[in-house]
């Protein structure tokens, strides 16, 4: 394994061990775990924040790839049921991995990339929204998918405000599931 990959792997291990709280991890800890000198973090990544962004992106990429595999294994479900399933799985991941998810979403908002985690999630949801609403043109499907992803991100990032305004505790899985189902009906108009 090369130095860059060793640094990434060490940082990911520490992120997991610290329950996603990357601010508590030092460059010295990462380098000790990776068995490399301190200067290599700056050489390969520029700074700790960029390293953390790459690690979080890699961690989330694995989840997004699982989404695509799950879609293939839910053939017996209707398109709406698949969308519900995928949305609930997404929300569960966000709420169960709060620190990592927050970093991922905020990084995507701050430094959008063509293939960042938000865009990959959007692309995973897009065909399901299209299948739910075959009467819509491509532009309509894209708008509804964008609205759905945006609402899901906001219900996670602003859970306290959304829970208060909507009078539902979205930290509870069963409430989140019911609210997500209602949002799907509202956005898709089905």
Automatic annotation (TrEMBL):
<dbReference type="InterPro" id="IPR001647">
    <property type="entry name" value="HTH_TetR"/>
</dbReference>
<dbReference type="InterPro" id="IPR009057">
    <property type="entry name" value="Homeodomain-like_sf"/>
</dbReference>
<feature type="DNA-binding region" description="H-T-H motif">
    <location>
        <begin position="26"/>
        <end position="45"/>
    </location>
</feature>
<feature type="domain" description="HTH tetR-type">
    <location>
        <begin position="1"/>
        <end position="63"/>
    </location>
</feature>
<dbReference type="GO" id="GO:0003677">
    <property type="term" value="F:DNA binding"/>
</dbReference>
<keyword id="KW-0238">DNA-binding</keyword>
<dbReference type="Pfam" id="PF00440">
    <property type="entry name" value="TetR_N"/>
</dbReference>
<protein>
    <submittedName>
        <fullName>Transcriptional regulator BetI</fullName>
    </submittedName>
</protein>
<dbReference type="InterPro" id="IPR050624">
    <property type="entry name" value="HTH-type_Tx_Regulator"/>
</dbReference>
